[in-house]
Amino acid sequence: MILNKDTAKKTAELLLQIKAIKLNPNNPFNWASGWKSPIYCDNRITLSFPPVRFFLKEEIAKIVELQYGKPDVIAGVATGAIAIGILVAQELGVPFVYVRPEPKKHGRKNQIEGYLEGGQNVVVIEDLISTGNSSLNAVEALKEAGAVVKGMVAIFSYGFEIATENFKKKNVSLTTLSNYENLLDQALDSSYIDEKELITLNEWRVNPSEWNQ
Fold first, then answer.
1. Considering only CA atoms, which of 140, 112, 133, 125 is closest in space to residue 174?
2. pLDDT tens digits for 124-182?
3. Which stretch of DSSP H or E encloses residue 40?
4. Burial class (CB in 10 A: 0-12, 13-18, 19+), 157
5. H helices of the chain, where?
6. Which residue from 66, 71, 79, 170 lies 20 to 30 Å from 89 (Cα-Cα)?
7. CA distances from 184 to 89, 92, 121, 142, 205 (A)
C-alpha cells in the first residue's frame, strides 16, 4: 500500500538520481534467483547520501506513527534494513532490534539481536520487498519471541502479486514509500526511460520469472 502519491514519486526520483535503482531494459541484470531483470535495486546506497537518508527516515517515521501509533520497538530486517531501521527508531525515540535470516550457530544462538520483551508492540522496517518471504520470516521470528507485530514499512516494493498474496496469507500489513508503478511514472516523466522501454518494463512485471528467457 502507498499512502502518499507525492512521497512515492519523490522517493522514486531520489532512488533513480543516486542510482540506488537502475533501469536497463536493453541489457538486463541477472538476479541471484536466476531471473533476468531490467531493474536492479540496492537501497543501501541511500545511506551514503545524507539528504536522501534523512528524507527516508522522516517519511518512514511519519508512516509508522500514522498507521500504528508510536511502537514500543522498531525492528530492522538484516542486513539491508538495519541502518534505516536504526534511523527510524532514533527519530521516534524508541528501542531498536534487528532480525537475522536464521539463528546464529554459536554463542546465544540469537535470531533477534537487541532487547525485546514479550507483549511489546513492534513495527518492522524493510528496505526492499520482492516476494516478501525473507521479510515475513523476520515477522514470524518476532512473533515467536512474543512480540505483537503491528505491521511493516518498506522503502520500495516491486509490487509482485506473489508478495501481495504472501502478506495477505500471513495477515501482515505492509506500507511502502514507493513501488514499481510509481517508479515507472517518475522515470517516464523525467525522461529516464522512453515509451518503448516502458512497455518492456511493464512486460517484465507481468511475468518476471520467465521474462527474456
1. 125
2. 999 999 999 999 999 999 999 999 999 999 999 999 999 999 999 999 999 999 999 99
3. strand 39-41
4. buried
5. 5-17, 50-68, 82-92, 133-144, 161-169, 180-189, 195-206
6. 170
7. 30, 31, 35, 34, 11
Instruction: Kindly state the cell numbers that stand for 99.
Output: 532480525
Return d(Cα 33, Cα 209) in angstroms, integer: 9
Cis amide bond preceding 79, omega within 30: yes
Torsion of CA 10, 15, 16, 18, to 10 degrees: 120
At how many degrees (to 10) do helices 50-68 and 82-92 cross?
60
The full set of domains in the chain, from first to last, is: 5-206 (3.40.50.2020)
The Cα 141–Cα 139 span in angstroms is 5
Q: What is the mean pLDDT of the chain?
A: 93
Which helix (H) or strand (E) covers residue 39, if one does? strand 39-41
Nearest to 159 by CA among 28, 52, 78, 39: 39
Residue showing cell 535470516? 101
pTM check: above 0.85: yes
